[in-house]
Amino acid sequence: xxxxxxxxxxxxxxxxxxxxxVTLLSACGSVNVKExxxxxxxxKNGSETSYVYRAAGETVPEVAKTLADQKKPEQQSKEDxxxxxxxxxxxxxxxxxxxxxxxxxxxxxxxKEYVRQNYSPSFLEGYLLASLIGSLFDSVGPSGRYGDYRGxxxxxxxxxxxxxxxxxxxSDTKAAPPMTVQKKxxxxxxxxxxxxxxxxxxxGLFNKKKDSTVSxxxxxxxxxxxxxxxxxxxxxxxxIKPRKSTTPKTKVGGFGKIRRRR
Length: 262
Known about the structure:
This is DUF4247 domain-containing protein. Pfam families: DUF4247 (PF14042). With 262 residues, this protein is α+β, with helices and mostly antiparallel strands. 24% of the residues lie in helices and 20% in strands. It has a domain of 148 residues. The protein has a six-stranded antiparallel sheet, with helices on both faces. Strands 1-8 form a two-stranded antiparallel ribbon.
C-alpha cells in the first residue's frame, strides 16, 4: 500500500511541475501585436475617395515595408524618406512624411479615380513607372488639364483639384478601408522588483530566489523515541512519514521462531 501511494504521489508531483513549465514557457513566447493606424481625414466624391491615416513615430520606409508585408503590391516605388507608393488593383497607397510633424508618416489610400482627377503626372513620374502613369491619365482628355496635388502632407502648398478634406464622420469611418496591420511581437520580461522574486525574466522557474527564512541546504531530521515512535521535522527528501518500527513479537509456545507483525 505504501509503495503504491508513493508511486502515485511522485507521478502527481511530476505532472504538476510539467504543467507549470509549459505554462511559463508559453507566456514567454512571441506575441503578435495588432496595431491600427487611426483615420485622420477624408475626401470623397463618388468613386473619387481618399482616406488619410497617421503612423505616429514611424518613417516612410518603415510604414511602406509593413504594409507591403501585409499585402504584396503590384508595383512599389523605390525606398525614399519622403514619398513612397504602393500600387494595387483597386487603389494606390501614398506613404508620405508629414511636413508639419516630420517624425510622423501619413498613409493616404486613394482610389485610382482620385489619383487621376487630382495628382500631377509630372510628380508621379519620379516614383511610378511611365506605363502605369500613362494608363492612369489616358482618359483625362487631350486638354492635358491635370491637378497639382502631391499628397495630404503637402495639402497647404498643393491642394487637390476637387473636393476638400474633412474630419472623418461615423459613416466615413465605417466605409473606410481598415488600416490594421499585424506586426511581430516582442518578448516582454517582468522587472526584477522586490515583489517579483523568481518570476519570468528574473531567473524564472530554474533560478528562483530562495526564501531568506529557510537556511540554505537545511534538511529535516527524524529522532526516535524510546517507544519506537518518531518525532521532529519532516525530511525534505520525502513526503511519507516513515513506517513505525516496533520490537518483534515472539509466539509463545512455538519453536522459538521470531515473526514480524504485519
